[in-house]
């Protein structure tokens, strides 16, 4: 296991050096701004929550959406999407595995979750249970890169480098949805699955393929 880890690290480091060595202009991909994402998703109604400029500067995103969606019969869901038009110069996607503990949220459980979306397609996302003091939340997140839905950070890096070499593109996005689990884990999971299904049909047409 340790040997595999070091092989993976060496590959990523070597590939990153290659990526930085590619100096030709990166392909600009037409896309719809994330502000165009509907504020109504099924019965959910969304409200923008702009991030402080200092946070945006740290994230160094090209575009983002940060909203809270409310259904009067359900608990709220917080949606964050961070889009990076280029990841060549170190402006890479920040993994929730690192950001959540840095914000005081500790992971207490994790697994992969398969979700049925449109037209018989299935996607695999990360499911996390996190806790801060007495507050518990459930998180789904995934990387959406050039039409791919990716759970693994290592796989997302691999495809970024592969597409940089083959298609001169490194664009990609992180999608994260969070909800309280004060009404129980199963209710929170059902809520996030339903919201993800409603979101995906819209998001897949906004993020570039």
User: How many individual helices?
Assistant: 5
Q: Please, what is the average pLDDT?
A: 85
User: SSE string, helix = H, strand = E?
Assistant: HEEHEEHEEEEHEH
- Strand percentage: 25-35%
Instruction: Give a count of the beta strands, DSSP E runs of length 2 or more.
Output: 9
**How would you classify the helix and strand content by structural class?**
alpha+beta
What can you see in these coordinates?
The chain has 209 residues and is of the alpha+beta class. The chain has one domain. The chain has five helices and nine strands, in the order H-E-E-H-E-E-H-E-E-E-E-H-E-H. It has helices spanning 2-21, 53-59, 96-102, 153-167, 185-206, and strands at 40-41, 44-48, 63-70, 77-84, 106-116, 122-132, 135-145, 148-150, 172-180. Strands 1, 2, 3, 4, 5, 6, 7, 8 and 9 form a nine-stranded antiparallel sheet that branches. It is globular. The mean pLDDT is 85.
Features:
209 residues; alpha+beta; 33% strand; globular
Write the layout of secondary structure elements.
Blueprint: H1 2-21, E1 40-41, E2 44-48, H2 53-59, E3 63-70, E4 77-84, H3 96-102, E5 106-116, E6 122-132, E7 135-145, E8 148-150, H4 153-167, E9 172-180, H5 185-206
């Amino acid at each position: 296991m340790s040997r595999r880890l070091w092989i993976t690290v060496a590959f990523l480091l070597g590939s990153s050096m290659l990526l930085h060595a590619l100096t030709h202009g990166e392909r600009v991909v037409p896309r719809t701004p994330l502000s165009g994402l509907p504020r109504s998703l099924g019965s959910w109604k969304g409200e923008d929550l702009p991030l402080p400029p200092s946070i945006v500067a740290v994230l160094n995103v090209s575009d983002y959406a940060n909203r809270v969606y409310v259904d009067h019969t359900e608990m709220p869901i917080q949606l964050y999407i961070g889009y990076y038009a280029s990841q060549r110069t170190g402006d890479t996607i920040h993994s929730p595995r690192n950001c959540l503990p840095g914000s005081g949220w500790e992971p207490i459980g994790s697994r992969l979750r398969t979700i049925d979306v449109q037209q018989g397609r299935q996607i695999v996302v990360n499911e996390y249970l996190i806790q801060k003091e007495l507050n518990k939340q459930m998180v789904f997140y995934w990387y959406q890169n050039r039409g791919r839905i990716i759970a693994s950070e290592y796989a997302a890096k691999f495809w970024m480098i592969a597409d940089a070499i083959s298609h001169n593109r490194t664009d990609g996005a992180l999608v994260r949805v969070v909800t309280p689990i004060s009404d129980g884990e199963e209710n929170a999971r059902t809520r996030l699955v339903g919201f993800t299904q409603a979101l995906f049909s819209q998001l897949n047409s906004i993020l570039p393929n």
